[in-house]
Amino acid sequence: MADNRVVGIDLGTTNSLVAYMEGDKPVVIPGVDGSNLVPSVVALDPIPLNGGRPTVTVGNSARRALIETPERVIYSVKRLMGRGLEEVKSELKLFPFRLAADIEPGEVPRVQLGDLRFTPPEISAYVLRQLKRNAERFFGAPVTQAVITVPAYFNDAQRQATKDAGRMAGLDVLRLVNEPTAAALAYGLDRGKEGTIAVYDLGGGTFDISILKLRDGIFEVQSTNGDTHLGGDDIDNLLVAIALDEIHAEHGVDLRAHPGAVQALRKVAIDAKVLLSTEPAARFDFELPNGDSYQREIPRAVFEHLIEPVLDRTVNPCKQAMADAGIVPEDIDEVVLVGGSTRIPAVRRLVDDLFHLAARGKRPHIELNPDEVVALGAAVQAGILAGASKTTEELLLLDVTPLSLGIEALGGVVARIIQRNSTIPASATEHFTTGVDGQTNVAIHVVQGERELADDCRSLARFDLKGIPPMSAGLPRIEVKFLIDADGILRVSAREQRSGKAAQIEVKPTYGLTDEQVESMILDSFDHAEEDFGKRLLIEARNEAGSILSKVEQARANPAWSQLRGEEQAAIEAASHRLLHMKEGNDTAAIRDATLALDRATQRLAELMMDAAVTEAIRGKTMASAAEELEEDLTAPHPMAPAEFK
Amino acid sequence: MANALDSAIPVACWSCHVAQNDLTLFCSHCSKIQPASAGDFFQVFRLRRGFQIDLEELEREFHRLSRRLHPDRFARASEREREWSLADSALLNDAYRTLKDPLFRTEYLLKLEGAEIGEQHAGKNRPQNATDVSRVPPDLLEEVFELNMQLEEMREAKAAGAADPALQANLEGAKKKFDGLVDAVDEELRRQWKTWDEGDAPAREAAKTAMVKLIDRRRYLSNLVRDVTETLGA
User: Fold this and answer.
1) B128 vs A: CB within 8 A
2) Which of A158, A420, B102, B203 is least enclosed by beta carbons within 10 angstroms?
3) What CA–CA distance (Å, rounded) separates B185 from B217?
4) In angstroms, what separates the C-alpha of B92 from chain A's closest C-alpha?
5) Which of A423, A450, A482, A495 is best to mutate for the B interface (most B CBs within 10 A)?
6) Which residues in chain A are closer than 8 Å to B67, comparing Cβ atoms?
């Protein structure tokens, strides 16, 4: 069972999470630091290479490096996934991405970290590998299969890049799930609801709106729309840009030349933004490199005025999605808010307006943590694929393709073959012929998008149909089948019908890595994977054992110790002794068992200590304020974590 | 699409080897998924060919088949079962998308019945410009000519940033009128559906011819309405 666990991963612009189904409930798996969120930040360690492989840090520790060594750190790489050099250029004005200088047109752009270069999928693979390791540590077993979420509005290339990243991280990606759909799944699971729901997902870097119909456990997406370059990042950039301008004007310092200072300023801006969701005003207080200080008060009204143009960009996609689903706001029974940016009160007002909520006595759903709901939904989908639980057995997700698929026809006009919002898998069959006698090749240009001209759409790939038997012009009849699979990724096959020969297809993705390139970028060599994994688990088990042993040692001095009965003390002594002994050996399972046994033996001790702490905390306070404080401090202990002794 | 009934070769289930007939997505004996042979969209839902469809029933059947065919149900199955599930679900989804929409369904069945439809279904390609005079239904020739002049004027006025309330009102009136004509076509289409579904061979032939004309007229009218809406909204 533990060997074929499928995890659900939310690979976010700002933060990433991994979750799994614990029985009938999706649960987020925390990292070693106890935090559920792993910041999608990757830092190249400034130490020499380790056996030819660069050493990288991911998450909170990488974020800390952002200010000290910004040239070795990258964040928000999701914005670059599956994109070409031309498309990426507009991002460079706003993000400190440093691209390698010698990228050929059509090549996947590489970012420079220190003196090494990485493709965006490689960076994402490091984040995925961290999540994979967190899950493996949690389960005590290898994790090789995952469901990964993507923005619903991601195109073919962006989806493929995400799948490539999974493969590089050593994960078999069983399914890509659209983020808003995953969120609906997490909500729908709790409620067994029927009706029409809209999911408004404003994350760190992407915006999605999806409209779904729930019926008999079937989640049928009716329409989806969005903007893959719109999110909290844009708000941060606005605040940073304003501060940079004011600092330049007032203090004559151009911080743009100091990447580390810009990153520090960015952190101040993000803190202010977060504060403004709950406070009427926030303060910028920032020390400049020359010792001066830049101070500014931002009232919420000013902030809301500033971000209005950003938020307004979500309006049209919502209207289009409703039009495509053939519904009006009154048809929507529930609205679900997803993504950290939906904590902003102005966003909630906009959503209320768009879907006429307050007027109908309704409120958007925010019961599930907007940072976690997508990962939880991914875990549910993982459960569906694994067929592991009764709850998920009845559920089925029917998603759609967000963008129309077309072929470039004569004159550069697009002939649509699969309409946007078609339920996937979806297919279309087209017939082609030759224009010249004896012609043996036919080229097909496939594009994705809603515009009339191929040049205005996203070029997906050029297919070269080869090996057509030489015939008079117009005589061959080549049947080409386009199929969009359940991940939203295109597959093409072709057949010459008169000769019955399968035509050979050569696919040239417009932007993307070849199979061989992906293969060469796989992070961990599989040869030693099993052995390495075993070693890592042993080390981790020993660390955990050491940690609980030292806590027990400290607890002996606690007054609670003397409250234990004699046989309870003896049981703890015996369990400690046994663990000390096991810890010296190489049997990971035995160490874990002994750790758990000691944990169980100290259960009552932990409770006594906890009670004492609570009494201490409540003394001299009203019940309400004490309860509030306790809520923050005393979250339920993690099932696998050693007992906490504070 | 070739008709499955043209080929008389019996197909056997890959798993239990019991012979299958018709377009079969599951073995009638052991229930295992089967590779979709060529067949039409009505066969996917085991429906008799007809223009009138119970949409509630169609949706229920779509959900029932989705539960059995969707790739999510085959995540742990063999490679070839996964491939079949993908192909079968695509066929199911394509069939549902076509049959649930009254216009797509009408065009699809007309084509199955050998009718020549000018363009492929309505939403597929951006239709030709409504100003293409050769395609104007004769009874509308004069009005369309007038409308096109007004549309041109409106575009020029908008480009110059000038408002022309009288013209605006004229165009809004025209839009209403053409919307009404579209509704009239739809009503006539529904009558012909019934004639075809319930009639004998000669009645069917007549209904088919009528529907081909109606579809053409409808497409023309809705392009016109779209042009007016776009010009008004621009």
Assistant:
1) no
2) B203
3) 8
4) 9
5) A423
6) 218, 396
Q: In sequence order, what are the residues at sequence separation of 6 or more whose Cβ sits closer than 8 angstroms to the Cβ of residue B212?
A: B110, B115, B116, B117
A484, part of any domain: yes
Q: The whole model's pTM is what?
A: 0.79
Tokens of A360: 């109908």
Domain count for chain A: 4
Pick from A287, A310, A333: which residue ends a domain?
A: A310
Q: Are residues A97 and A218 part of one domain? A: yes
> Are residue A391 and residue A485 in the same domain, yes or no?
no
Residue of B nearest to A215 (CA): B63
- Among candidate residues A18, A59, A376, A371, the one with its CA nearest the CA of residue A203: A371
- The nearest CA of chain A is from the CA of B72 a distance in Å of 5
* Cβ contacts of B94 on chain A, cutoff 8 Å: 426-428
Residue A335 belongs to a domain: no
Do A34 and A156 sit in the same domain of this protein?
A: yes
A56 and A149 together in one domain? yes
Residue A339 lies inside a defined structural domain of this protein = no
Q: Which residue segment(s) compose the domain that A191 sits in?
A: 2-224+371-398
Joined together, the tokens standing for residue A461 give: 């790939």
Report the CATH number that the domain containing residue A432 is assigned in CATH: 2.60.34.10
Backbone angles phi, psi at A121, to 5 degrees: -60, -30
Interface confidence (ipTM) of the complex: 0.81
Residue B89: its chain A contacts at CB < 8 A?
425, 486
Residue A193: strand, helix, or coil: coil
Average pLDDT, chain B: 82
In-domain check, residue A347: no
Residue A147 is predicted with a pLDDT of: 97
Express each pLDDT in A414-472 by its tens digit.
888 999 999 999 999 888 888 888 888 888 888 888 888 888 888 888 888 887 888 88
Residues of A annotated as part of the active site: 10, 78, 179, 201
Q: Rounded CA gap, A273 and A281, in Å?
A: 10
Please judge whether A417 and B63 are an interchain contact, meaning their C-beta atoms are less than 8 angstroms apart: no
Count contacts between A and B (CB, < 8 Å): 70
Residues of chain A with pLDDT under 70: 1-4, 46-54, 93-94, 96, 189-192, 501-511, 524-533, 536, 613-646
CATH number for the domain that contains residue A263: 3.90.640.10
User: Which one of A515, A546, A575 terminates a domain?
Assistant: A515
Tokens 């997902």 -> residue: A201
A113 shares a domain with A48: yes
Task: Give A558: exposed, middle or buried? Use CB within 10 Å, 0-12, 13-18, 19+.
Answer: middle
A386/B75 touch (CB, cutoff 8 Å), yes or no: yes
Contact A276, A282 (CB under 8 A): yes
Same domain, A53 and A22: yes
Name every residue in A having a CB less than 8 A away from some CB of B.
174-175, 215-216, 218, 381, 384-387, 396-398, 413, 415-417, 419, 422-429, 452, 483-486
Q: Name the residue among A215, A425, A452 with its Cβ closest to that of B71.
A: A425
Residue A47: what residue type? I
- Name the closest residue on chain B to residue A220, using Cα atoms: B63
Q: Which of B66, B76, B93 sits opposite A396 (nearest CB)?
A: B66
Residue with tokens 């493709």: A119
Indicate whether A187 and A282 sit together in one domain.
no
Residues A470 and A601 in one domain: no
Helix, strand, coil % in chain B, rounded to nearest 5:
65, 5, 35
What are the chain B neighbours of A387 within 8 Å (beta carbons)?
75-76
* Identity of the amino acid at A386: A
The model's pLDDT over A244-295, given as tens digits with 9 standing for 90+, comes to 999 989 888 888 888 788 888 888 999 999 999 999 999 888 888 888 888 8
CB-CB under 8 Å, B93 with A426: yes
Residues 6+ apart with CB under 8 A from B160: none
